Structure formats: structure tokens, C-alpha cells
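Q: Convert this sequence to C-alpha cells.
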Amino acid sequence: MDSNYYQAYENLYADYIYDERRAYRPYFPFEDDMLRTIRRAIDDNTIGYKNFRPDAKFFLLVNFHHMIVRPLAEARRFPQFVPEPVNLLKVISDDVRTIIRDATESYRTNDSAEVSGHAIMQSIDRLWRELRSTKFEIWG
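A:
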């Protein structure tokens, strides 16, 4: 990966959670909690992996946010998970953790130099039927 892009992805990942100074506001009250849960799951499960590239983190964050959380919010489908929204947070967190574990294990067995966004995409493909978030039938 070109070092300029490496830094660009680091910056994008670092700035992804929106704050009061930005225009974006979560559509549904749980969306902000979910976004922070995704970010925490990524950060907690990549600590100590120097070879886990920022594009891999950003790929996970953007995809879980825009391909799972946002469609649920737009379709106003969150109420089906209430009164236990913590379960939805756990499903998402567990799926992120599972993908990271698989990508990291694949990186070790394939002697790859780094865990990239492409490695994350391959892990999602390998794990598709096992991921709990696919049960929401949002896309597939």
C-alpha cells in the first residue's frame, strides 16, 4: 500500500465518529451507540496487531455502519429489536470480532505482510453464513 494512502486511511478512521461540530446527526437514537460499538469492537480487537492496516479498520467501520446500521435506521426496523437493543449491539460487536479474528488468522497462515481491507472482504465472504447480522436479511 502506498504510504500516502496509509496515512489517509488512518485519518479517515480517526475522524469517522461524528461530533457536534459536524452536520451528521444519527437518524435513530441507537445509531450513535451502534457506531461507537463498532468502533470499540474494532479498536479492542486490533490492539497489538501492528500489521492491521487502517484501510482494514475503515472498511469494517464504514461497511457495518452504512450497510447494516443505516439501512435498519432508514427502514425504521430497529423497533423489532426493542426492548433489548443491547442484543443488537452484541450481534454487531460479535460479528466485527469474528471477522477480525478470521482475517488475522488468515494473515498468519498465508504469510501476508499485513491485514488489509481486501483481507477483511475475504473474511466476510468466508464467514457470510456464520455472521449473525446476516440474519437481518438487509442485503446478501
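Residues 82-86 have pLDDT under 50 and may be disordered.
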